[in-house]
Write a structure and sequence with these properties.
Blueprint lengths: L21 H5 L1 H20 L12 H14 L6 H17 L8 H13 L3 H21 L13 H75 L4 H26 L20 H10 L3 E7 L7 H21 L4 E7 L5 E8 L17 H11 L3 E7 L2 E9 L15
Parallel strand pairs: 1-2
Antiparallel strand pairs: 2-3, 3-5, 4-5
Length: 415
């Protein structure tokens, strides 16, 4: 197999791609310049037969000038100032030679519009003014007979040229304004795409943090218990290892589910829905394996929550209990679900304290748990407060849940 890489271009064929005309492969600037050259040559020849008084017939030099303008247009994107100035000079030479009026102005008009669109407005204005002033001099200041084709114009003709110049300037400004609008809209769309990608990465990072922090904390506690009991009480050590296996399996399943969102459109759907408050008993059981007794109380009539609010409530409780296991000396915690406000749900997690002494291997400073919980609540339009309370620690979150067509308005992730 050779090391040559196949040419990858647009078209249904592989390898070198479909055959195209040389001027198509050269690009739009060359192709459009060829079209303008054909228009100028054919149009000027046709216009020469209907002009009064008659102008000089086109000769080799005239055809050369008609082709010189389109040739300069090839540079209009890379060298817009050179293109507009060059086409302006060619146009003045053509008019001074007395050749027929016609679409010879097309090259200069295109070069002028492109220069204005690309931001070279002063150079374009100066060239337009120079061309207009040159035409005035050729029409009124140059004595008849000094140059062919001069001194034959009148004020009506000059008024027409003035109108054309003003029209060209207006069209160029409209093109520039429209182009800037398109660029601004594309920039806004790209910024929105980047913002959505950043928000998605942040959401996934938050999910992974909550899943791994809870599971690893549970595994850490159970591993310590197993190490202490493996010699004297092997059966209890075996129970701790079983808990570690179950927690790790649960964490792996949730991590796969989160990472599955990175797959393409053909990826398989999640095997189970996102966790919600219906899985609180699992959290209570896992906390019990880590030696933490959790009491769950409910106030008011429980209601079904949108998936986004349910997931946020579950993760907030999970992270709060993880913090109790890791950072508190208390062996009990209380979770309150307050449904008394119809517009939303209040979640309160109380840790009676006191705070535990950090392990020697634990790095100083806090993690991202509290910030992640607050971001979850704020993403739904809710609030979260966390801080010391009566010698312990309290997390208090309010999550809105309005009405939808099926009874509830979906907030946050469901919007």
């Amino acid at each position: 197999m050779s090391g040559e890489q196949p040419w990858r271009g647009p078209g249904p064929w592989h390898g070198r791609g479909p055959w195209r005309f040389p001027w198509v492969r050269a690009g739009w600037p060359v192709l459009s310049s060829v079209v303008i050259a054909v228009i100028q040559v054919a149009g000027s020849g046709a216009a020469a037969r209907h002009q009064v008084p008659p102008r000089h017939a086109l000769d080799a030099f005239g055809y050369l000038l008609l082709l010189a303008g389109p040739a300069l247009l090839v540079l209009r994107r890379r060298r817009p100032v050179v293109a507009v100035a060059g086409t302006g000079v060619v146009l003045l030479v053509y008019l001074a030679a007395g050749y027929p009026y016609g679409p010879v102005f097309a090259s200069f008009a295109v070069a002028y519009c492109v220069a204005v669109r690309l931001g070279h407005r002063r150079a374009a204005w100066a060239t337009l003014g120079g061309v207009y002033l040159g035409h005035l001099l050729l029409t009124f200041a140059m004595p008849a007979g000094w140059l062919p084709g001069t001194g034959h114009g009148g004020w009506w003709q000059e008024l027409g040229v003035t109108a054309l110049a003003l029209l060209l300037a207006a069209v160029a400004e409209l093109v520039r304004f429209r182009f800037e609008q398109i660029v601004a809209r594309r920039a806004a769309e790209e910024a929105a795409v980047r913002r959505r990608a950043d928000e998605e990465r942040l959401r996934m990072a938050r999910e992974l943090h909550d899943i791994l922090a809870h599971s690893i904390s549970l595994i850490h506690v159970q591993a310590g218990v197993a190490l202490e009991l493996i010699d004297d009480q092997p059966e209890q050590a075996r129970s701790a290892l079983v808990t570690i296996k179950a927690a790790s399996k649960e964490a792996l399943g949730e991590v796969r589910q989160v990472l599955g969102t990175l797959r393409g459109p053909g990826a398989a759907a999640p095997r189970r829905p996102a966790p919600g408050l219906d899985r609180l008993p699992e959290l209570v059981e896992q906390a019990a394996h880590a030696g933490l007794t959790v009491t769950v109380r409910s106030s008011g009539t429980a209601r079904a929550l949108p998936a986004g609010a349910g997931l946020a409530a579950f993760r907030i409780v999970q992270e709060a209990l993880t913090n109790v296991i890791r950072h508190s000396a208390a062996r009990r915690a209380e979770v309150l679900l307050d449904w008394t406000v119809p517009e939303g749900l209040t979640v309160r997690i109380d840790d009676p304290g006191p705070a535990a002494q950090p392990e020697p291997a634990e790095p100083p400073g806090g993690g991202n748990g509290l910030a992640g919980m607050r971001e979850r609540a704020e993403a739904l339009g809710g609030t979260l407060a966390a801080g010391p309370h009566q010698g312990g620690f309290r997390v208090l979150a309010w999550l809105p849940a309005g009405r939808t067509a099926d009874g509830w308005r979906r907030d946050g992730a469901d919007r």
